[in-house]
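Exercise 7b. Backbone tokens:
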């Protein structure tokens, strides 16, 4: 089995050394572990991310561990980049300087609104949900205009604290999934939602089924911010993926894709 989304203490809100995550992955019998640590570029906030200047250290440290654990587990090196159109050129240039295995893109903000922090005005109950959802979809669609990434991380993260839109979101998600299919992107199945008030997988089962219908490939990650959470909640999620009709997960090597069986890994 694989875990294609773990963090490290470099992002300032996760704990544990890189090697501690790898050791945990080996301990639970994973075949692949992929680091997808945060790279968030925002004028006012970098404290929840490694700095751009730390990327060379991040890459080289993982490169060493990749070699050290060869034969025991495949260690992959990626980034979870926060979508922010202002910085795309800088980010693209940085991505090209290193041979990353995979690049994920995510939305933790819709414009200035933080959607992931418990204390944000959105998660404290302010704002009209329909307006915020519209804004979220607008940003997602904008993100999908760009080509710097392989994987769309936690597609419906906006539901994290259980705030729901009052209207049906089918049309928006159908449109977004069509674009994802057209652009040949991978959807990440992220199990971290079970640790939060929403108590659900990202994206939810009905969206996973839509992905299957559109023949969109998926990958799987825990979004672990501590070594103990590597591979978390897989016992709940794997049966759902199989029920949705998936038999394979996508893995990456220097941004080239291949498929591994869900059941044999
Ligand atoms: Zn994080
Ligand atoms: Zn994230």
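Sequence design result:
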């Amino acid at each position: 089995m694989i875990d294609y989304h773990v963090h490290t203490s470099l992002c300032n809100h996760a704990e544990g050394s890189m090697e501690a995550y790898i050791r945990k992955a080996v301990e639970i019998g994973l075949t692949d572990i992929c680091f997808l640590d945060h790279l968030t570029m925002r004028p006012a906030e970098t404290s929840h991310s490694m700095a751009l200047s730390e990327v060379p250290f991040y890459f080289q440290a993982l490169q060493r561990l990749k070699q050290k654990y060869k034969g025991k587990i495949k260690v992959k090196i990626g980034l979870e980049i926060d979508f922010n159109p202002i910085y795309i050129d800088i980010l693209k240039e940085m991505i090209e300087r290193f041979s990353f295995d995979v690049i994920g893109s995510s939305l933790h903000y819709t414009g200035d609104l933080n959607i992931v922090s418990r204390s944000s005005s959105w998660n404290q109950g302010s704002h009209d949900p329909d307006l915020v959802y519209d804004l979220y979809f607008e940003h997602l669609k904008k993100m999908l205009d760009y080509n710097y990434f392989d994987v769309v991380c936690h597609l419906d993260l906006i539901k994290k604290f259980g705030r729901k839109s009052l209207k049906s979101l089918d049309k928006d998600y159908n449109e977004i999934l069509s674009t994802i299919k057209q652009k040949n992107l991978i959807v990440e199945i992220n199990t971290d939602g079970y640790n939060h008030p929403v108590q659900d997988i990202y994206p939810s089962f009905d969206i996973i089924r839509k992905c299957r219908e559109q023949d969109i490939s998926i990958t799987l990650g825990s979004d672990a911010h501590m070594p103990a959470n590597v591979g978390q909640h897989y016992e709940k999620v794997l049966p759902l993926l199989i029920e949705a009709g998936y038999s394979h997960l996508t893995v990456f090597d220097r941004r080239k894709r291949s498929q591994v069986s869900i059941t044999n890994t």
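Instructor comment: The first strand starts at residue 2 and ends at 6. The pocket of zinc ion (ligand 2) is lined by residues 80, 106, 108, 153-154 (CB under 6 Å).
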